User: Fold this.
Amino acid sequence: MSKYIAETLITESEIKAMVERLGAQLNHDYAGKQVVIIGVLRGSVVFMSDLIRQLDFPVEIDFISVSSYQGTKSTGVVKIVKDTDHDVTGKHVILVEDIVDTGLTLNYLRELFTDRGPASLRVCSAFDKPDCRQVAVAVEYVGQAIPNAFVVGYGLDYQQRYRNLPYLAVLGDDGKEGQDE
Ligand code: IMP
Assistant:
């Protein structure tokens, strides 16, 4: 697949170190607490599966699916496609994201879960594009901040492709061929 890639931004071994660091932080901060980890589908699945295996305390996991993107652009309107199954009232919730871009999705999710009465709510995102924010939103745990570019791999897609790349990359023009937005 490398012919589709313009540039590798974060290598597989850098991602591994990043996940270990985040896992150590969570182990420190959540020891002894009742924790529900909620992955935001679908981009977070690769990161979440690596992250939870770093944790040395019992966790429940759940998923929520929201839509806001078409092609490479955020529509700004967030809709729930699939909600969580767990009651998070009184529990410590960690929302797991692949990347925070405009912040619109996360802003919506933070409000949604805050209204459900968790004991605490924090966000852990693999990647962050702080220069792209349209709304200020808290991200308590960030794996790696990156410049403003559309990236794929490690769970992130371009029109549902490239999620399986084990590294984070900027897509080349070949990678977008035949995939009109
Ligand atoms: P936001 O609402 O603009 O912060 O975007 C949130 C979601 O958009 C992320 O969880 C990703 O699924 C998707 N997204 C944002 N930037 C990228 C990117 O560079 N590549 C792939 N998906 C992205």
Notes: The chain has a mean pLDDT of 92. The first strand starts at residue 5 and ends at 10.
